[in-house]
Design goal:
With 307 residues, this protein is an alpha/beta fold. The protein contains 11 helices and 11 strands. The strands form 2 sheets. Strands 1, 2, 3, 4, 8, 9, 10 and 11 form an 8-stranded mixed sheet that branches. Strands 5-7-6 form a 3-stranded antiparallel sheet. It is globular, with a radius of gyration of 19 Å. The two termini are 35 Å apart. 47% of the residues are buried.
Length: 307
Amino acid sequence: MAETTSEKVMTAREAVERFVFDGAVVGLGGQNVGRCTVAIAHEIVRQGKKDLTLCGCNLSIPMDIMVGAGLVKRTEAGTGNLERFGTTFCWRRAVERGTVEMEDYSHLAMVSRFLAGEMGLPFMPIKSLLGSDMLTRQARSTLKKYELIDNPWNPGEKVVLLPALNPDVAIIHAQKADPMGNVIIEGFLAHDVEMVRAAKHTIVSCEEIIPTERIRNDPERTTIPYLYVSAVVEQPFGAHPTAAYRYYDYDTDHLNFYQRCAREGGKAYEAYLRDYVLDCETFEDYLDKVGGLKKMMALKKAMQEML
């Protein structure tokens, strides 16, 4: 659980410097092409945090960028893909080459592990993995992926026990937060709530910081209360090129461009990292390169037309 100080508003650079360290277990929120933590992932790459373990359900493009930058040693997740835009190519290539280790769970299994961590329990019983190959394979460095027991109240009924997961830091992107760290997520929640409540620290980037009075006037809309949040980073379009529900649609052009670079790898991907991440001092520099205000307004309009 995070500290309760109200001094939580900071830049992405300050948040990553303070809460992400070499060798950290980092939980990533959002999934597919929605509400992904792209701005904070860029900052992690610029600061060169290394030997990271990334965990979540569908780790998507933030994970692929950090893997492509050579900062990740291990992933624990349900999958890695960009939905209709295809797999996460840097990650797949790294797993095939053995430079990144992958421990494979289902989405439900990952949420169950975060739920155990949130509740202070050492493990969580589930039944959804029974009969799956996920119980016949595991990464080399995993000590015990699961335990299979009989239901103590119904002998002969098998139950899978999964270890709790408590990330060193959880990173999510939300639509709104106040300076204290009260967070409003609109649309799908994925695993973000359970993961944040299980994590030791949480960085929240958000489309806008709103006054605490608005939170108090509409308290039932608070998705995550302030006591679980360590840092609040205001970053409009911080999920680009993925979408933020009610704010902007995903950027088909840039996702296709990213996927071409990631699939080709080598110099093509090195050029992408240099041009769109490493040579950008801030995320605003990146947004200018991918089309600037005109492009962002078009993505906002596309979202408005769907609402």
